[in-house]
Amino acid sequence: MARARNEAPAPSARLSDGTLARIVPSAFGGGWELDVDGTPQSHVDLDDPTHLHFEYIARMGAVIDRLRMPRQPLTAVHLGAGALTIPRYVEATRPGSRQQVIELEPALWDLVRENLPLPRGASLRVRIGDARAGLSRLPAAMTGAVDLVVSDVYSGAQTPAHLTTVEFYTEAARLLAPDGVLLVNVADGAGLAFARRQVATIRDVLPHVVVLAEVQTLKGRRFGNLVIAASRAPLPTEWLPRLMAAGPHPAKVAQGAEIDEFVRGARPATDGDATASPKPSSSLFDR
């Protein structure tokens, strides 16, 4: 007799840094989670790729929903694959989109591809390599033509320092169409020193910035994820009430003078002085 779903051995792969990646049944909301050494990095619902379980991913989805016209295909570049939650969402909501993914770990991509297969016909190419180095290897025709760049890169539970700098974001922004949007996931805790510096860094490259987060996270009272959306062009003001309404709740969208205050005293990070994102407490992801 076949084992029950929660009794089957979890598919796994050992990554280059020695950490163990596993695909495990989600304890919440069905679907599957990609877990790397105890840190849940992605949630995927194969039956419904529009189901965005993690709160920060749902906030990214709310921004993506505002791009172009509904159902209009997008050109997108994703830095960091995880279990391809956002690329699956784009494919489901914007059929015909052209997407490129840059993922450092070939073993991780093999694990995801074999156990959480992509929809047939999805126009998605996965390139193996460092996210920053991979930007320069994308087709030249993509320069200035990309609607969406998503940066959600983690080594374990931290974003590497070289993917947090003015120089890095300048390379990523080079891909964007004049009104294209950069989405960045930033994790931080009390005081938000890292997040404030990241917003200052991104705004040094792309002047129009909004930040989406859970209220207590944005106030620096708890460790959590903040989503930064940035563009060369002004982000439409009609986005803001829709982003607030989209949740997850309690939601907060900071813009304009709130961003000025948020980054006050924060110095943009450069290749010469950047640091990795703070490591969360080991108890944060206890189930």
Q: How would you summarize the topology of this molecule?
A:
Layout lengths: L11 E3 L5 E6 L6 E5 L2 E6 L10 H12 L8 E5 L5 H9 L4 E6 L2 H10 L8 E5 L2 H5 L10 E6 L14 H8 L2 E13 L4 H13 L2 E7 H4 L5 E8 L7 H8 L4 E4 L2 H6 L25
Parallel strand pairs: 5-6, 5-8, 6-7, 8-9
Antiparallel strand pairs: 1-2, 2-3, 3-4, 9-11, 10-11, 10-12
Helix pairs in contact: 1-2, 1-8, 5-6
Salient structural properties:
alpha/beta; 287 residues; disordered N terminus; 8-stranded mixed β-sheet
Short summary:
This protein has helices at residues 55-66, 85-93, 106-115, 131-135, 166-173, 193-205, 215-218, 239-246, 257-262, and strands at residues 12-14, 20-25, 32-36, 39-44, 75-79, 98-103, 124-128, 146-151, 176-188, 208-214, 224-231, 251-254.
Description:
The model is unreliable at 1-5 (pLDDT under 50). Helices cover 26% and strands 26% of the residues. The two termini are 29 Å apart. With 287 residues, the protein is α/β, with parallel strands linked by helices. It is globular. It has a single domain (52-262), classed as 3-Layer(aba) Sandwich (Rossmann fold).
